[in-house]
C-alpha cells in the first residue's frame, strides 16, 4: 500500500513525499524488492504487446512487428537492465554520501540512497505504458517528459533525503544524473553487442 501512496505522492507533492519516505527508515531489501521488480514489469509487458501485436510504421508504410521469440528475448533483457540500473544507481548514491557529509548510520544512508533511485525511476517505468502503441514520436515524447521529471525528482529529493543544504544537493544530484546517463549508454552499448551476436529483433510485416 505504501508503494502506491508514494508513487502518487511524488507526482502530487514531491517535497512532502520525500519527507515521508525519509521518515520511514525501511530496509534496503524492502524498498528495492517490493518496488522495482513489480514496476519494471510495466514497460516490459506493454512493450511486448506493442511490438508483437500492435506494431509500428515508418512514414506511413506497412506495419512492422517483431516475432514473439525475438521480442521475448529483448523484453527479458530490458527487464534485467532495469533491475541492474536502479540497483547500481542506488549504490552510487549511497557511496557518494560519504563525500557530502551525510550523517546517520550506514543502514539509514543505504535506505535513503536506494529509495531515491527507486522513486526517481518511477516516472520512467510508468511511462512504459506508452509502449502499447509503439510509434516513435509518441514514445520519444512521453519518455522525454518522464525523464525530465525523474531529473527533477533527483534534484528535489537529494537535499531532503540526505538532509544536506540545497547547494550541496545540487552538486550531488548533478553527479547522480551523470552516472545515470552513463548507465544508459552502457545499456545501449550492451544492446548493440547482443544484437551483433545474433540475438537481435526479427521483423515481420
Describe the structure.
With about 200 residues, the protein is mainly α. The protein has one domain (about 1-200). Helix content is about 75%, strand content about 0%. It has ten helices and two strands. It has helices at about 1-10, 15-25, 30-35, 35-40, 40-55, 70-95, 105-120, 120-125, 135-160, 165-200; strands at about 65, 205. A two-stranded antiparallel ribbon has the order 1-2. It is elongated.
Query: Counting H and I runs of at least 4 residues, what is the number of helices?
Result: 10
Note the gap between the termini.
43 Å
Spatial strand order of the main sheet: 1-2
Strand content: under 5%
Number of strands: 2
Total number of distinct structural domains: 1
Helix content: over 70%
The low-confidence runs, each spanning 5 or more residues with pLDDT under 50, are: none
- Form type: elongated
Give the integer mean of the pLDDT values. Answer: 85
Largest sheet: 2 strands, antiparallel
SSE series: HHHHHEHHHHHE
Could you tell me the radius of gyration in angstroms? Answer: 18 Å
How is this fold's topology laid out?
Blueprint: H1 2-12, H2 14-24, H3 28-33, H4 36-39, H5 41-54, E1 65-66, H6 68-96, H7 106-120, H8 122-126, H9 136-162, H10 166-199, E2 203-204
Antiparallel strand pairs: 1-2
Amino acid at each position: 500500500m505504501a508503494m502506491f501512496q508514494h508513487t502518487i505522492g511524488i507526482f502530487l507533492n514531491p517535497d512532502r513525499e520525500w519527507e515521508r519516505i525519509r521518515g520511514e527508515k525501511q530496509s534496503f531489501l524492502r524498498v528495492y524488492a517490493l518496488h522495482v521488480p513489480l514496476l519494471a514489469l510495466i514497460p516490459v509487458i506493454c512493450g511486448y504487446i506493442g511490438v508483437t501485436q500492435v506494431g509500428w510504421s515508418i512514414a506511413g508504410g506497412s506495419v512492422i512487428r517483431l516475432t514473439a521469440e525475438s521480442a521475448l528475448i529483448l523484453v527479458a533483457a530490458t527487464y534485467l537492465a532495469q533491475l541492474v540500473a536502479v540497483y547500481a544507481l542506488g549504490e552510487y548514491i549511497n557511496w557518494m554520501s560519504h563525500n557530502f557529509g551525510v550523517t546517520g548510520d550506514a543502514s539509514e544512508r543505504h535506505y535513503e540512497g536506494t529509495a531515491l533511485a527507486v522513486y526517481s525511476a518511477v516516472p520512467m517505468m510508468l511511462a512504459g505504458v506508452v509502449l502499447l502503441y509503439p510509434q516513435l514520436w509518441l514514445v520519444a515524447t512521453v519518455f522525454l517528459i518522464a525523464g525530465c521529471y525523474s531529473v527533477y525528482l533527483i534534484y528535489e529529493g537529494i537535499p531532503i533525503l540526505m538532509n544536506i543544504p540545497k547547494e550541496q544537493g545540487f552538486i550531488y544530484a548533478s553527479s547522480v544524473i551523470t552516472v545515470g546517463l552513463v548507465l544508459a549508454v552502457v545499456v545501449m552499448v550492451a544492446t548493440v553487442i547482443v544484437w551483433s551476436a545474433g540475438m537481435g529483433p526479427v521483423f515481420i510485416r
